[in-house]
Amino acid sequence: MTKHVIIIGNGITGVTAARHIRKHSNHRITVISGETDHFYARTALMYIYMGHMRYHDTKPYEDAFWAKNSIDLLRGFVTRVDTDARQVHLGGGRTLQYDALLLATGSQSNFFNWPGQDLDAVQGLYGIPDLVTMERWTQGITRGVVVGGGLIGVEMAEMLHARHIPVTFLVREQSYMDYLLPAEESAMINQEIRRNGIDLRLATQLQEILPDENGRARAAATDQGEEIPCEFVGITAGVHPNIDVARESGIESGRGILVNRFFETSAPNVYAAGDCVEFREDGIGSRRIEQLWYTGRKHAKTVARTICGWHTAYDKGVFFNSAKFFTLEYQTYGDIKPNRDPTVRTFLWQDTGRLLRIDYVANDGRVVGFNLLGIRFRHDRCEHWLLQGATIDTVLDNLGDAQFDEEFTRDLRRAAMAQS
Amino acid sequence: MALIGIGIVGLLAAAFGTGSTAPAVSFWISMGGLTTGAAILFRAYLRRPAGVDNNGVWFSSATARGMAGWILGIVFTGFYVVLYWAPANLEHLVRMTDPLSHMIRGRAADRWFLYGFFYTMAVLVMGARMLVKYRSNPYQIVRTISVMFFQLGFAFLIPGLLLMFNQPEYYFSYFWPLKYDYLWPGSIDYLSNASALGVFMVFWGTVMFFVATPILTYFFGKRWYCSWVCGCGGLAETAGDPFRHLSDKSLAAWKIERWMVHGVLVFIVGVTALLWGNSATGGSWLGSLSGPFAQTYGFFIGLIFAGVIGVGFYPIMGSRVWCRFGCPMAATLGLLQRHFSRFRITTNGGQCISCGNCSTYCEMGIDVRWYAQRGQNIIRSSCVGCGMCATVCPRGVLKLENGPRRGRYNGPILTHHDQVSVQIDDAWIQSRPLNPPAQEDIPILTDRDVAGMF
Fold first, then answer.
1. How does residue B423 score in pLDDT terms, banded at 50, 70 and 90?
2. Backbone angles phi, psi at B307, to 5 degrees
3. Whole-angstrom distance, CA of residue B397 vs CA of residue B365
4. Contact, B386 vs B245, CB < 8 A?
5. How far apart are CA B200 and CA B192, in angstroms?
6. Measuring CA to CA, which residue among B188, B24, B34 is closest to residue B109?
7. Residue A328 and residue A375 in contact, taking contact as beta carbons nearer than 8 Å
8. Torsions phi, psi of B411, nearest 5?
9. Which residue among A44, A212, A300, B123 is least packed, with the fewest CB closer than 10 Å?
10. Which residues make beta-bridge pairs with A258?
11. Nearest CA of chain A to the CA of B444: how many Å?
């Protein structure tokens, strides 16, 4: 039987689900978005502002792709879902009937009730609308302050820096991202941020944003008692699941839309996936709320199968992630904790601009995770080692096999062995 | 900037007279001004930490098809128009290069020497820019030094020295079908009768195309030539680098490309066969037509396409228009690369974030992201292996490799490159649950697979 599948959200999760449902079935598919007509890569927002790409270049599929694959795109804001009548309500009184509904509403920027956070020229960075306002508020300014030491914070600092705008970067932690990264990695990133001319203030929190006479930010006051004059404040203190529609529709939510391992919500035929969900139990995902590009894509592939009739549980697989801090690339595979417990040992190799960390179990040498800065490793290889329970000796003996740096790069194994 | 201005003024002065009256002074003022000015500009790269340095590329008038871009395009195109159709206007500039020409070739300059000189200067000066801009990337450094070396040595100095020693002017770095006439009966007769070295040239040209080309392409892909040796590629990779993102990435452009570039190849093979047939039958096929026939082709393809559009349109259509749409050598290498090569761009598992930097900076207009975001290796006949997709990728997803052929094509090959499979009937769906597809696109490799891969 052909169903009508409605997907709310055209980010990586919504669109991946649509593509996979199309691969598996001839269901009618409608993707609704209030943000843009077409799917674009949110990860590339910074590159538009920096002039590396145009908006058009960030669209992973040509506009004709959607019609060719009979995926209907609809621009509009969903206000509410009637889960009994199986209807989606859009602004303007329009309704749509569904057989299966996927909520892929993503997340929203965190604002922690700072005084002055509603002033003009204070904003987060999540989507195209943010990019538009950022463009407007950063014209001809003399300093920008970025608040919050996560991945988006560094991106925003890099964006402003690329436009020759001096940046002060307030990070609450003692060292950048020390809640996720061991000390050496964190220190190397601090250094990279400073090397690029960013005024990085560690262990510093935003107290208040001060207004000028027009209601626009004119300075950021810190808990160190300092007032930093600026005309723009970027708030990058993380994101939280966007549960607006779910809450309006009586779909059970906690911090995120609550789902089981099949991405089923409390309402029949309503699924949720990606950044907006919270797993009901621990152990389904790497954490209760997974908000990565990669996890969004993986949730989507799984839920697409369930919607097409193969009830499929989420398999979180071997964890991986990547990022880039100015010129410094970062990859991680498996499980690396900032503070190792005593049963885990670490192999650490550092060189100018490069770092390799391999954590392994002390008693049997089984490798549990990799952290890499300035080095590229093969995903397949690392995943294989981690699944297979390869020992530290095996891994070190075969390091060259994992290296994925461009040709003519010095052989890592030789370099690492020469030093250690 | 001031020095570049002096260089340009010097060049203009030379063009309007001083090139003849005071060639050495004109030469040193214009070339000195341009090169030192450029060197000072390039130092700006060194003041920034080494890494991908594309800030503001789409904001600059010169590199985003703005007014400056169009003016540059018109100037480049204008130069080719004057060079081909009104060479008398270049007389003074040609005279300016007389001293150099005497030094290298033992004779006075002509317009082709002037052209070769400008071309080589562009490759060397803009090559220096590549070396500082991409100094963090070993592949780009080695490759750029290679194109600078081949342009200076094989496409400029050696042909000049050959003339000095009264040998036929021959470019050891160009082969049939790019130099379409190198395997034509006329050229072979001429070279074989010219000298012992001429006989070697015939041997060289034949062996390079029939033996070395397939072997090198098998081991390294098309890049051994297109982005390491070739002069057209050399100019595109150096002077063309600021414009690489202007290539058209659309599916429509790809379709046009395939028809055009293979069309040119078929045409050249046809013409060459015809000329040999004609020669074998003592000229009975074409009669007196063979000369004009060859000339017409040379005019349309060699001059208009490769020069005027190929280089003149850099600031409008990107740096590889000729290589992509017109070069018969690229077409030949492309067929070999697609079907008989170990070369591929490996996609690193599921790491792609679909940002689009790879596609944007692909000078050949390949939508690299299309493959990368599916975890699929990139094997495209048009890929010249410049490695820029891997260089600009912010997540280390891509790597150029010459691995074994097994496992080269990987990942989710669906019904067609450009679409997910569609329109499946209900009955088919009903039959599927018993045999669901693999959950992840990324295969977990077995030991044996991995052992063979490295």
1. very low
2. -90, -70
3. 19
4. no
5. 8
6. B24
7. no
8. 70, -170
9. A212
10. A278
11. 7
- Looking at per-residue pLDDT, the higher value among B164 and B437 belongs to B164
B125 phi and psi angles, rounded to 5 deg: -70, -50
Q: Which two tokens stand for residue B20?
A: 């003849």
What is the Cβ-side half-sphere exposure of residue B422, based on CA atoms within 13 angstroms? 16
% helix, strand, coil for chain B, step of 5: 65, 5, 35
- For B53, the closest chain A residue by CA position comes to A52
Q: Do B387 and A384 touch (CB under 8 A)?
A: no
Amino acid, single-letter form, for residue A386: L
Q: Dig out the tokens for B204 from the structure.
A: 């060289």
Please name the residue ranges forming H helices in A86-138. Answer: 128-137
How many secondary structure helices (H) and strands (E) does chain A include? 12, 25
Question: Could you give the 3-state DSSP secondary structure of residue A342?
Answer: coil
Long-range pairs for B276-284: beta carbons < 8 A, 24 or more residues apart: B276/B184, B276/B185, B278/B185, B279/B185
Residue with tokens 């070697």: B200
Could you give the maximum distance between any two Cα atoms of chain A, in Å?
70
Subunit contact A57:B359, Cβ cutoff 8 A: yes
Using only the alpha carbons of chain A, give its radius of gyration.
23
Is the predicted pLDDT of residue B447 greater than 60, yes or no?
no
E-strand stretches of B158-227: none
Residue B297 pLDDT > 80, yes or no? no
Residue B424 zone, left/alpha/beta (φ > 0; ψ -120 to 50; rest): beta
Give me B447's structure tokens: 């030991």
Q: Is the peptide bond before A211 cis (omega within 30 degrees of 0)?
A: no
Q: Which residues of chain B neighbour A315 with C-beta distances below 8 Å?
A: 439
Which pLDDT value is given to residue B427?
A: 44
Structure tokens that stand for B167 in this block: 């040998």
Token pair, residue B389, equals 């997709």
Mutation site, B219, B354, B415, interface A, largest A CB count within 10 A: B354
**Residue B57: DSSP 8-state:** T
Give the whole-angstrom CA distance, residue B184 versus residue B294.
Answer: 10
Cis before B177? omega within 30: yes
Residues of B in contact with A2 (CB under 8 A): 426
The stretch B422-435 carries a mean pLDDT of 39
Chain B residues in contact with A294 by the CB 8 A cut-off are 350-351
In tens digits, chain A (420 residues) has pLDDT values of 789 999 999 999 999 999 999 999 999 999 999 999 999 999 999 999 999 999 999 999 999 999 999 999 999 999 999 999 999 999 888 999 999 999 999 999 999 999 999 999 999 999 999 999 999 999 999 999 999 999 999 999 999 999 999 999 999 999 999 999 999 999 999 999 999 999 999 999 999 999 999 999 999 999 999 999 999 999 999 999 999 999 999 999 999 999 999 999 999 999 999 999 999 999 999 999 999 999 999 999 999 999 999 999 999 999 999 999 999 999 999 999 999 889 999 999 998 899 999 999 999 999 999 999 999 999 999 999 999 999 999 999 999 889 999 999 887 877 777 665
Contact B356 A44 (CB under 8 A): yes
Q: Which helix (H) or strand (E) holds B74?
A: helix B67-85
Which of A256, A258, A259 minimizes the C-alpha distance to A275?
Answer: A256
CA distances from A115 to A43, A111, A130 (A): 30, 10, 20
Whole-number Å distance between alpha carbons of A205 and B383: 49
ipTM of the complex: 0.94
A408 contacts in B (CB within 8 Å)? 138-139, 141-142
Q: Which H helix or E strand runs over A146?
A: strand A144-147
Contact across the interface for B348 and A405, Cβ inside 8 Å: no
